[in-house]
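Researcher: Please predict.
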Amino acid sequence: MKKLALIFIFNALLFAKTLTPALTVDVNESVKDMVLAKGHLLVMGTDGGKLKVYDLEQKKFTKIIYLPKIKDFMGDVMDTRVSSVDYLNGKILMLSDSGIGGYSDLRLNENNKTSDIFTEKDKLALVEAKFIDSDNILVAFLSDEVALYNLKSKKFIYKKQLSESKFSDLALNEKRNLAAISSESGEVVLIEPKSGKIVKRLSGVNLDNVFKVDIKKDMVVTAGKDRRAGWYNLTTGKKDYIQANFFIYAAALSPDATLAAFAMDENNNITVVNLNTKSKLFTLKGQKSTLNTIIFKDNSTVFAASDDDYVNMWKLK
């Protein structure tokens, strides 16, 4: 009897349960970034120059913001790409291409009005922008420099160079008082966003570009070009990884930081891993293209967007 129980446990660790989407949202264009707002709104930035808000309770789009079209280097008019979005207290940040010199446009939407924070005239090559609070935003540059910008004074509080490598990704913890920033080097830098102080440098898991990073509680997860789905425990100092057979383009942590989701194969499937046991619990099928974003709503609900027109939701059960 004990032998059968051990075999069952061993098989459970080896074979993840396959799940198909419980909900599929047709966005009608590729979603480059998305965040969950108020627990029931998906705020999505698309490559068609739109910001779309989807109500998960009503199961419909309730708001669409159209960004101005841009001209490419040939002078042709085209849609901009919304590459980064964030939401806080009714405010939405939208970072997009300007179409000029590799510079960025950053806009704020509040009370149904959209205003410019930066345009191509400011000549800033920004990659991501996140709210620290209602008045301050943390922006990241392609050069792996970060800066805190105050919306009221319209001035930078500080700018800080983190490394000589190219920037990859930025994530904030729940309180927005700790940021995890990844780069081509494989290192993850933790900083205090308000001061720019470097708290810790995490290394030893990834040996190449960390495409995506996430931070929840005392855990940091990484999605690596070196095909490593990695994690660091900030309390114990322990670190580990699972080797995949393909580049890992996206990763996310559950709210309690016990589960992680990684895009781990060439079929765009997502693997949900128990970080305590290192066991693969679920394989989430349904994405048809390279993963851009994964979000946990809670420990049993996962959303993902990729380079196609669909956002999927899975229930982990």
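Model: Residues 204-317 form a domain with the Methylamine Dehydrogenase; Chain H fold (CATH 2.130.10.10).
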